[in-house]
Amino acid sequence: MRTVVAMALAALLLTSCVAQELEPIPGSITYSGQPRTKLTKSPVGSTLNHYFYGPFGERIQETYVIQPDRSLKLVARERQDIFSALYD
């Protein structure tokens, strides 16, 4: 009985760690809600990248996927320090 409870608890904790969605930050396309214009010519499921600079000077790249209702879903975010590009 204890093993079953421990396994269920471990599965619950693992699911809660994996299933978190990214929240928009200032500079994100969807920070103040979905854009007013719809991407009517882009196929559903296609991705687009958005680059901007964050509040601490880091360069941020966000990846969005176009949903069937033509809204954008934020699926990935990558941060890069602006000074690291100088030393590559």
UniProtKB/TrEMBL annotation:
Domain of life of the organism encoding this protein: Bacteria
Keyword entries, A-Z: Signal
Signal peptide: 1-21
Protein name per UniProt: Transmembrane protein
